[in-house]
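Marked as duplicate of an earlier ticket. Keeping the data here for the record.
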Amino acid sequence: MSKENLSENYDIIFIGSGIGSLTSASLLAQFEDKKILIIEKHFQAGGYTHSFARKQNKYHWDVGIHYVGDMHDSGFCRLLMDKITRNNVQWQKMSEPFEKFVYPNRTFELYGNEEKFKSDLIAQFPEEEESIIRYFSDVHKASALFGKSMMMKSSTPDLSAFTKQMQDPSIITLKDYLDYHFKNDDIKAILASQWGDYGLPPSKCLFATHAALVVHYFNGGYYPVGGGGKIFDSIEPILAEKGGAVVTTTEVLEIIIEDSKAIGVKTRFLRGQKQERNFYAPVIVSCAGAYPTYTKLIPDSVEISFRDPLKDFYKKEKMATSICIYLGLSESPAKFGFKGENYWIFASNDHEENFQKRNDWLKDFSEIKNMYVSFPSLKDPDAKNHTADIISFTDYSLFEKWKDQPWKKRGEEYEEMKKKIAETVISSIDTRYPGFKDIIDYIEVSTPLTNEHFTSHPDGAIYGLACVPERYDKEKSPWFDCVTPIAGLYLTGADAGGSPGIAGAMMGGLAVTQKIHGSRALLKWLMK
């Protein structure tokens, strides 16, 4: 729909087109016939589910979907995804093992089978058998507590509920748990290998957040056939059927609040004359994240009792951000033995050190030792050409001096740094897999500034606010809830869903839908 033909009035307005918005918008359009407007800053809708192409549409990558769990036939995430897309997205199970955790002294292969996961650990660490068995029991308990609370209360459990589950009340973080129950440093490292999926080292992450992730992948990893963009492509027609629309290249400047109630949004089109326009609805749902919503989109004149504590939380617990190198390949990477599995490569079995030294290689462009390597084209049966992407965590501060420069026009120094990043990463991969650099046909590097430009997430964050234990202390952190203090204003996405990633953001979308709908009939319809 052209912007000139857009109505000014809707039943619900969503800020941002991430999976949290798409989930809720599709459910409300289907179940309640709501006329919905989604407003997206990027020129492509879909948030971190969107795909992009380069070299005359030859190479395709997803910006955020690298793999998703719980997509087997009986998985709840699969049920929810099928409902919001009307079964129009196919999911391809990844080859097994679907993950490899690579350390200097060993490589552990992870299969999508809980019993095999357990038996493989016991085979390598027989002296830890009792603790391994307990670990699998405990991750199930903690994950179930998450799921039950989100389904029944549309919110995460309080921190106290998690600590009551533990053998010792001092066990709060993943590191606390591993140090309490395990002696061998290698098994501690292996069990924490997926920390990149929530962006925090074991000492910072709540054990229950880690547990939910582990259980999420017990049945393996899945990838959307045709790429993540198929999700938005399947949902947009559902909204259009009810008179809804999705508008892109449009920034929400402010949430309009009158008499303590959200009634609309003030926007600016980001091309041409950058025309400003207001849209109105009795319900506004922000997928921009808790921090931007409370500190930027809600006017300062509107009193929010926890605005300053939220700013303090953000300063103390910086959000995860990353560098991503997108590669177009002239040949299949299968020639090097890759089958579509993910690789988590670490410099040591000390993840605290790995995290603390995440920026070291960017200071002298020495070998990169901690990275995630993935091959989208080997996961997607529809892929026509081969691709890879390589991700490494970093800090926004290393790129901050270029933040005020426009996208694609940040100057020679910035471009030279990106060139060195690409060269260093490629050299590091080629050292491990000789000859890999010879099949690279195209290279593109994204930095935290890229993320910030398109998402408006502070510091280019990729996962929302940090999943530290304080996040789940409802008295100290009241901003982690889909219901806000402003009537008619809600949150969706990862900050409302209790955990990062596609699944967490989807649960945030389900939670806010239940709050807006106000009855349990939606769940009954969903489970049909």
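See parent ticket for discussion. The CA atoms of residues 49 and 228 lie 5 Å apart.
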